Amino acid sequence: MFSAVVFIACSDGDDDPEGPNTTPDSGITASDDAGPSTDAGETDAGIASGDAGNADSGVGGVDAGVQVANTAFLRIAHVASTAGRVDVYLDDEATPRVSVDAFAGTDYVLAPAGQRTIRVAESGQPSSSAVVTATVALAENSSMSVALYDDEAQPTALILSDVAPTASSTQATWNVVHVASEVGPVTLTRIGPSTNVPIVEGVRLNESATVAVDASAVKVGIDVDQDAEVDVLFSVPEFSPASAVNVYVAVETPASDAALSAHLDDGTLLRVPACRALPQSSVVPLASTMTSTSRIAEFNITTSLAEIGFGDGSAGDGDGLYDVNDPSVQLGGDVDVFPREEQFVVGEIAYVADEATGCGIETLGIETLDLMDLWNDTGAVTDISSAGLDLWFFGAPLSLTFGALDESDTVTFTDGALSSIDLQVEMVLTIDYTFAGNPTTYTGELRIEGNRVSLLMDDTQLEVPTALGIQPLSRMVFALTGQVDAVNP
Description:
Blueprint: E1 6-8, E2 27-28, E3 34-35, E4 51-53, E5 71-78, E6 86-90, E7 98-100, E8 104-105, E9 109-112, E10 114-122, E11 132-138, E12 143-150, E13 155-161, E14 171-178, E15 186-191, E16 196-203, E17 208-214, E18 218-223, E19 232-236, E20 244-250, E21 259-263, E22 269-272, E23 281-285, E24 288-290, E25 295-298, E26 304-307, E27 320-323, E28 330-335, E29 343-344, E30 348-352, E31 361-370, H1 386-392, E32 398-402, E33 410-414, E34 417-431, E35 440-450, E36 452-466, E37 469-484
Parallel strand pairs: 1-13, 5-12, 14-20
Antiparallel strand pairs: 2-3, 4-22, 5-8, 5-9, 6-7, 6-10, 10-11, 12-13, 14-17, 15-16, 15-18, 18-19, 20-21, 21-22, 23-30, 24-29, 24-37, 25-26, 25-37, 26-27, 27-28, 30-31, 31-33, 32-34, 33-34, 34-35, 35-36, 36-37
């Protein structure tokens, strides 16, 4: 059985959220040792991002604003990585008042006002096997939160007297609660486009600070060693205006510096993941899974098409050439135009992330584009086979080239993860049907939108010169589509 210290936090009576307010050390523990106090608040917030968790309340959630005689309101925030699902008992009740998973929260439940003993046991265990025990005075109609957190590899509880939110149409009240036992005093800073603004400064373990913050989504940095440098970045979602949110600074694993969780008014505990730093220079592979119906077709000179799904997937399979007017008819022998079938390699792009933080939504310019794996005439295996095109077009000299990048070609990262590529370059197919330096040029485009990649062309050329004379026209169609594997939209 674990032993545990329990801090009973007392409000300092100051509910003004207009500035940071860090409470002094003035609590008691289950063993009557002195402990610091905390000032934290109930929540009312909208979820924009992060991992949310909630729990079974047993009796269902209640509105803490309702006045009920001889009754208090109690909820649980479980941010302890050293404990799994737990049952929370009140006094000597045989049935848990509420159950909650690790990194989850509960809505308020009713509890009789007065001097009460709170017992926390591992799920399925009786209250006599509690790993945390605390006695607390529950005032009539008071709203209280019990935060379970890690202290020296064992669960510990901090009991908070929740405060009311500020009446603001643009701000939310943050009650920043320090329960990261592995971390010293913390400073939270709002990361702005040009300047950084402190939110709270020097909050110590088992202390809190109450402050009004714009309700919009913000980037927040935490300084965990008081060296005036941000150590961990977070992308905090939008909260509802005129709401109060208990924002817990905790340790999710023994190796982590700090993590953020926000306890919302519906009982959900929203975990805000730390942002992932981007490398200063990075390459993104464009390997893509293409649809089996992706095809190339020429309607007049060869009257034939090639389609990925027409082959059987074996080396040298015959995905071309088929009659463009009756694809059930194969014209001549097997021609393998798509040797990699649906699994295109395509190539790669590179970006430079000089100013990227890996936090929130960040869009960066693409610096280089390499498509040598899509097509080249070196004889190497490529997604679109140069040898296959040679067989298709009678051995006529041909090339497939792509245009240059511009400032509109970008990659987008969301909290450090690649969420979108936006790229569009010209694609030019040139075929010299004359074999004498008088080529015909067809124009299309390579486009990547989000995670969707496409090679598109529908170009008709008139009076096409060939070795057999002028042909009235030639229509060339590329309709190849798929998804870029590296993008997680």
